[in-house]
Write a structure and sequence with these properties.
Shape: globular
Order of helices and strands: HHHHHHEHEHEHEEEEHHEEE
Number of domains: 2
Helix content: 40-55%
Bound molecules: S-adenosylmethionine
Strand order of the largest sheet: 6-2-1-7-8-10-9
CATH class of the largest domain: Alpha Beta
């Protein structure tokens, strides 16, 4: 299938999945490769044939929805964002939790892929902040719609490229080598719980001090589901809680009750 043919197919099919073409522009090649393999499996000649197949096999839309998930992640992805978390956001929230006489800082990583994002948070806490807040513990819930990615997350073994943004001495301290893989030591895993959840359908049902929802809903979802997810995230935050999006993402304008923090792109606070 030619690039132009695949792009035309994606422009037609993504809105039908409540996704947006603009989010997929940069990553279209990996989605197109999956679709090409699928055409081959089904013995279909081209995108036109696949459209006809979708019309007579509605269950195939589920396959296509799965094929449009982008699993890219790495530790400390967008370093500046994690520096903001370590320098400003987490200390601010930790002080507030302490002042309220609570013992636990609750975080949610929504769309956690293979665990790189929630484990980065656990590393910041253990290696940079825990000693300043000895009476506090950090609990991280990490959710994703993809069971295969969650199995990898629980396994916590990564190739070198996943760690390239981490400070070198953290790699030394936090990982054990096993052939070509880097395995996260158990002490950095115990605060993270992984759960299979589709953010379009459900939320964890508790309130968090910090939510990370990066490079998922506000890149790939269409406007209506973006608004629903934003409302769900707002309801899942404690008052004064912080929501962090990806560095190129912003909330839909229609969403109320969350205000952008000055000087911090993609970071919002619940009013
Ligand atoms: C590009 S990765 C982002 C990973 C991480 N947040 C980061 O920024 O590095 C997007 C993740 O969102 C997950 N995802 C996509 N749709 C989802 C949904 N409806 N509910 C929960 N997770 C979803 C995908 O499986 C994938 O792991």
């Amino acid at each position: 299938m030619e690039n132009a043919e695949c792009v035309a197919f994606l422009r037609w099919s993504l809105p039908r999945l409540q996704l947006r073409w603009e989010g997929f522009r940069k990553v279209r090649r990996q989605v197109c490769r999956r679709i090409q393999r699928r055409l081959h499996e089904l013995g279909l000649p081209d995108a036109e044939g696949y459209r006809a197949y979708l019309a007579t096999h509605p269950e195939e839309w589920l396959w296509l929805d799965t094929a449009c998930r982008i699993p890219i992640s790495r530790f400390y992805r967008n370093r500046g964002a994690f520096e903001s978390l370590a320098e400003n956001v987490l200390p601010l929230l930790a002080r507030r939790v302490e002042e309220a006489g609570e013992g636990e800082l609750r975080c949610w990583s929504a769309g956690c892929a293979s665990g790189e994002e929630p484990y980065s948070l656990a590393l910041i806490w253990a290696l940079r902040l825990q000693s300043q807040f000895p009476g506090l513990s950090l609990r991280i819930l990490a959710t994703d719609v993809d069971a295969h990615l969650l199995a990898r997350a629980r396994n916590a073994a990564y190739g070198a490229s996943s760690l390239k943004d981490l400070p070198d001495d953290w790699v030394e301290r936090a990982f054990e080598r096993s052939n070509s893989l880097f395995c996260l030591r158990s002490e950095f895993r115990r605060d993270v719980e992984f759960r299979l959840e589709d953010i379009r359908k459900e939320a964890p049902g508790e309130r968090f001090h910090l939510i990370l929802c990066r490079n998922m809903a506000f890149t790939y979802f269409a406007e209506a589901p973006q608004e629903r997810v934003a409302a769900l995230l707002r309801e899942s935050l404690e008052p004064g809680g912080i929501l962090m999006l990806g560095s190129h993402e912003e909330l839909p304008v229609a969403v109320r009750g969350l205000s952008a923090l000055d000087g911090h792109a993609g970071i919002y606070q619940k009013l």
